[in-house]
Amino acid sequence: MSFKGLRREYSTGKNISGRIMLVVTCFFLAAGVAAYREALEPVSVRSQAAMRQYVEGKHRRYRLTAFVLQVVKDNYVDPTRLKPKEMLKAALEELQKQVAEVMVIWPEEKREVELKVDIYRRSFDLSGVDSISTLYTALKEILSFIEKYAGKEQKAEEIEYDAINGMLHTLDPHSLLMDPEVYKNLKMGTRGSFGGLGIVISIRERLLQVVSPIDDSPAYKAGIKAGDVIVKIEGETTINMTLNEAVNKLRGDPGTKVEIWVKRKGWAEARKFVIKRAVIHIKSVESMMLKNGIGFLRIKQFSRKTDQEVAEHLKKMKKKGAKGIVLGLYNNPGGLLGQAIRVADLFIDKGSIVTTVGYAGKKRETMKATKENTVWRKPVIVLVNSGSASASEILAGALKERGRAIVLGETTFGKGSVQVLFDNDDGSALKITTRQYLTPGDNSIQSVGIVPDVRFVPVTIRKDNLKLFATSKKRREHDLEKHLNPSWEKSSKPSAMAEIKYLAHDEKARREFNGSVSGNAADIEVIKIAAGLLSQNPTTRRKELLQNAKTRISEIREAQQKRIAQALKKLGIDWSVEPVSTVPMLEATLLAEPGDFKVKAGESIKLTVKVTNLGLGTAYRVRAISSSFSHLFDEKEFVFGKIAPGETRQWTINVQIPFRYHNQAIPLSIRFFEEYGNGPPLLKTSIKIRGHKRPVLAAQYQLIDDLLGNRDGLIQKGERVRLRVTVRNVGKGTSHSTEVSLKNLSGSAVSVRQGKVDLGKLEVGEEKDADLVFDVKKGLTFRTMMLKLVLQDTSLKTRFEERVVFSVSGNGRLVEKLDGWIQVKKEEAELRGGPDKDSALLGWATRGSTFLLSGRIHGWYRVEWKPGRPAFLPIESSEVLLQKKHPKKDPVVRRFFHLTPPIIKTKKVPLITKNPAVSLRGVVYDDKKVKDVFIEVIHVGEDIHRKKVLYRSNRFSKEEKQIPFELNVDLRKGLNYIKIVGRENEHVKTEKMLIVLKRGEMWQKYK
Questions:
Q1: Which residues are catalytic?
Q2: Full-model pTM
Q3: Most exposed: 81, 379, 390, 937, by fewest CB within 10 Å?
Q4: Which DSSP helix (H) or strand (E) runs through 64?
Q5: Tens-digit pLDDT profile for residues 59-117
């Protein structure tokens, strides 16, 4: 095994958890999976030959772990963060989160740790873990123990990945081990070109939708339009495809063809498109001309040709007479570090652009501008926001510190570190932080960011969406756990020269304004203000631009305040202010509809705040803002404006509670403000949400080969098969939006044609049938095939699944056609889906049950159990009847359900408590077997904390169909989500959520 160190460096942006749009050319942005794109440059590391000798010679097992630890030891930017015992503990905590069977018990003295894996226990002495070498030795022993006793589904390499990432989490948020899929997509994201169709896609409302085709791409030329829904790719339904899976199917070698089926509004049915793939070049730069000879240039990311693209756009704008440009870096997550430096060099003719400081501050390198590369010497204003990270911060910082531009917008993300990538033979890659970078003047922006010269704060004023004073909830580098501190150089945090609140435009106006520039570029108003500053004083000198801005700030702020006041006036709010001599006395009340502050999930609650002025003086600019642990009720604004003596003003907000919410109590406080500090006291309450009882969905499934098959009840290659699924609700609550879906896990030789059926509402005890359809292609090389069957209530987000394996027979069997009736003569006769004992058991027919006979095959009768649903009975268990009449009674069949998720019952726990713990008692039971149960507590308060508090295996238990549990669950202040998981096996499981609010010091903020 070799480890090939990539000679590239990353200047990463920030970690992203949300799903983002992907270019199906098949550009898959790594930001949607793990982290922002990052930059790569040559780096000095330990000799790869020596590294390979160390890893492959001395440590043959867990060589990846040995390699990671050695690279970290030799190259990590801050060696003081390498604390072996903490790294080992973090590895164990991560394994506990990711591997159900693992439970870690830390004694108070923490000299040793007890590890439970399933029913097996072992203690490990940690007292000697004081170096990277002893850390590796201990971890190797622990991993061996886990691998030996963890479930069969747990792959050794995945366990090792989890342990490594746990250790790396102790260093900083950007050091990690990327699995092969993530790393492949990251490389695709920074390449800038690839083979594909040229469309941006996303999953919206669970449909694979086209966001937009790329101009002049194969998809664009074929007529694909924004809003189209791709329903099939190469004959396979996209219903259960992940975004990544769709990307992989659509991309391919240039010149090859791909067949897609597309639905469009106004079309009666989907239409087929056969599109030839081509090399798609993703443009990272776009531009447009504004008024008065000012250009707008936006850099979306830094990929391999960004500097060339920027140079081309600058030349075009020069030809159009541009006398200055507004450079948009809004929401630019970063990219290639070298590209950020080259782009800066296009604007700066001398001096440093960026300096990197490496291992313990000892390695230092400065990249400087060159006069011959400068192509733009005209004025520049840079626009940034909190989404501007890493490489974009390098560019903005260089232009600011070199006196080349002023910066407007928001403080940037604040990621001032550089990562190095090492790719591994298994396709994974290690990414570690090796340096921090400094802007000119040796200013560190790590966890600080680029502070704009003028901060712009957007304001939204609509009755249903008021954001007048709410703070931004966007996470920055300093919000990330284990973020690095600023570098060893200057790290003072400057302040903005001024702050301007501006009335933000709505999305429609933004789209109309942008024209050729895509969304997320910046708000229209900020672009207009920046362009106005340039057009009135087109100078290349930062000092002169700043001076001009200073003289304009007061009039810009005044103009924006007038716009805000006018928008409030339309809502009946007087936002004027005058000097006061008499103090008002304000009294506030909070009302709710429903009046008891209780609301059912799926419904809405109206909160009305009334403020009455009982004093003799007038109150001005009265407003209020809420605080809560829940985003539903946090930072909701109430605005009242001017309140004269004796006057009452009120403001109402409507909060829709998601249908999926569980029983819970949410604390809420409302704080008031008045222009002269005369606001009423704090209001406090709690909102109690009543959740819906959860359904549990069981399923029976049967293969029926009557579409393109020989009707022998067995699967052969080349057949089209329907999977009849009977779904029964065996839980305590209604399934409001029941969906049955099928996902192929057997590669391209199996193609799902009908992958989803909506069954609607399913009451407790009710059952319904669904037919799912798939093709078994002749190219199938395996004797078995695997599918994933998923049952879910899409409204409640309740999900059950099972991996189903079916045998594929070599040759079809001839079914002898018969007619008439047969009657079961045994006490009970097995009813199966095919003519052998390995076929799916459907149930047991009782003595005297009569079936319509349709054929005979090798000792089995083929009968019609229900209309359109055949089954097979053993010949020895039944006899043929002479009569041709339909029997008076339907056959009696004791049904067998294949998928029967465990049932979880618990004693009631309080919604709100002052106690340090709650008593949790319950039982998990199943009609087949309960494999295990585990319980996690996720705390949401001022921080988020997750801990596994119980794991119990049923191995060797005499009562294999149930597991009782009883424990005290420690609570932390805030909301405590207690998640109970009962498993029948690795895939069939049931989850139950209990939510408890613990009062305490933190509660005083809210109630």
A1: 390, 401, 415
A2: 0.87
A3: 81
A4: helix 63-75
A5: 457 889 999 999 999 999 999 999 999 999 999 999 999 999 999 998 776 688 999 99
